[in-house]
Amino acid sequence: MEDKLDKLKAAIFTLVDTPNAIEATVLNHCRRRIDRALKKVDLSNAATTADLAQTFAQRVAGVDVVAIAAAAEAHLRLAIQTRDLPSLLTIYSNKGGLVSLAASHLKRTSKAEFENWLARVLRNDQAPAVKAAIQSVLPALQAS
After folding, report:
1. CA count, 13 A, side-chain hemisphere, 22
2. For a disulfide at 114, which of 62, 90, 103, 128, Cβ 3.0-4.6 Å?
3. How far apart are alpha carbons 31 and 68 in whole angstroms?
4. What HEC string does 4-15 produce?
5. What's the whole-number mean pLDDT along residues 50-59?
6. Is residue 16 within 8 Å of 117, Cβ to Cβ?
7. Number of domains forming the structure of the chain
8. Pair 78, 114 in one domain
9. Could you tell me if residue 34 is inside a domain?
């Protein structure tokens, strides 16, 4: 199993370590950060449309896309260079592609079949070690 995991990890870094993949990852990270910043813009105190425009322009000007991109690229390149998979996964957002890689490397199956297998395993407790490994890295969910 360790050999399969090592090959999967190598495949992930090979997938991500190309100029196009790095650019796409940085671009997606920037989009998420910009979206998050825009959601935090509070325009409720604007009394006029001029106030609204000025407040909005100030808030948007505070989002330094170049700095966000530079930090994201540095983080990504360091994760690739040091082969730090957990660090890579904090910024890499193509999780569907990673599930496909896991399916082919770990079970030699399609993504859909792998997801179905994983759902069965988790639901029926057929592989307690897999379930425990997943639970160890995910936050606990509580019904509200």
Report:
1. 18
2. 103
3. 10
4. HHHHHHHHHHHH
5. 91
6. no
7. 2
8. no
9. yes
Could you tell me if 58 and 129 lie in one domain?
Answer: no
Cα 110 to Cα 102: distance, rounded to the nearest angstrom: 9
Contact 118, 126 (CB under 8 A): no
70: pLDDT strictly greater than 70: yes
**CB 15 within 8 Å of CB 21:** yes
Closest CA relative to residue 12, chosen from 80, 71, 78, 90: 80
Burial class (CB in 10 A: 0-12, 13-18, 19+), 25: buried
Q: Both 87 and 128 in a single domain?
A: no
∠ CA 25-29-31, rounded to 5°: 120
Using one digit for the tens of pLDDT, what is the confidence trace for 91-138?
Answer: 988 878 888 988 899 889 999 998 898 888 888 877 788 778 777 877
Q: Is the residue at 23 inside a domain?
A: yes
| Whether residue 113 sits in one domain with residue 89 | no
Say if CB 87 and CB 77 are below 8 A apart: no
